[in-house]
Design goal:
With about 300 residues, this protein is mainly α. Helix 9 crosses helix 11. About 50% of the residues lie in helices and about 5% in strands.
Length: about 300
């Protein structure tokens, strides 16, 4: 084969030299593909490999092993550089906080059910991960988008409190929940205060700007106005503040949540696998789903 290209089937001699069956007739004939085009098909700035070599963003993996933490490596892979200590600590805190919320979460329950159906562990984990969508798992990304809007308005000299009130009013008029606030189970999400406390300290030290934190607190205050009980940030809102302060795009915020929750999904799937249970459904076996259809009736003759 010539060093100038990959044969596209146009040269019968080339086909004969590479195909044990000899030249193929009737196949579409195309031009030779330059080697540079083939090598550039999956062009990437993330990983370089060569015989005996693996580089991640320019760093030899042999140098990263034992030196870089997993969280630092996640940052490196996504952002291209090694994080500072404050950035690494905030990212790790957010990933730890989102790792699990028990079998009440549909993604966890689905993974546990899948683990009793004879699937591989990877299939059970994929089952849980694939349930993470806009309603279950997507609020963090949505909250990041709202916070980014508030940060933009503040940068344009709009009053943050008024901007937050406007957003809250708009969501209420559309009968929608403001993403990242309130929780169906926790009156006050126990993950909120530790995460926001870390962001506050990082902002005071100049490690992060603090704009997303201010936006989140303004929204929280606007939601509380006219109510007897406040509507505090939940895990989605608190991690949205963290990821926004760290400069992650909203869609990557969802990806990071999936990365974190995958650990909980894996742990639950593995625990269920160890139980030996088979074909475990969504409700205990003695119970039946409520039937709302017609009463038993004869089939018309």
């Amino acid at each position: 084969m010539s060093g100038h290209g990959i044969p596209g089937g146009s040269n019968p001699a080339d086909a004969a030299s590479t195909d044990p069956a000899g030249p193929r007739t009737g196949a579409p004939q195309g031009p030779a593909i330059p080697v540079a085009d083939v090598e550039g098909w999956w062009r990437t700035g993330i990983t370089r490999i060569a015989p005996g070599e693996i580089d991640l963003r320019g760093y030899a993996v042999a140098d990263l092993i034992g030196e870089a933490s997993f969280v630092d490596t996640v940052w490196l892979m996504l952002r291209g550089e090694v994080p500072g200590p404050e950035e690494s600590a905030l990212l790790e805190a957010a990933l730890v906080a989102s790792v699990d919320h028990g079998p009440q979460a549909p993604s966890i329950a689905a993974a546990r059910m899948a683990a009793t159906c004879g699937t591989g562990l990877n299939n059970a984990v994929a089952t849980g991960v694939n349930l993470l969508g806009d309603v279950h798992g997507g609020a963090g990304q949505q909250c990041m988008e709202v916070l980014a809007d508030l940060v933009r308005r503040a940068a344009e000299r709009e009053d943050p409190a008024e901007a937050a009130r406007y957003i809250v009013a708009r969501y209420r008029a559309e009968k929608r929940y403001v993403p990242g606030f309130g929780h169906r189970f926790h009156p006050r999400d126990p993950r909120r205060d530790p995460l926001l406390g870390l962001v506050e300290r990082a902002a005071a030290a100049g490690a992060v700007p603090g704009a997303h934190l201010a936006a989140g607190l303004a929204l929280e205050a606007a939601l509380a106005e006219g109510r007897e009980r406040p509507v505090p940030m939940n895990i989605d809102g608190a991690t949205a503040v963290v990821y926004g302060e760290l400069g992650f795009a909203p869609e990557l915020g969802r990806g990071l949540f999936v990365l974190s929750r995958s650990v909980g999904i894996l742990a639950h799937a593995w625990e269920e696998r160890q139980s030996g249970a088979r074909i475990k459904g969504p409700i205990p076996r003695p119970l039946r789903a409520t039937y709302t259809g017609p009463a038993p009736r004869p089939y018309p003759s």
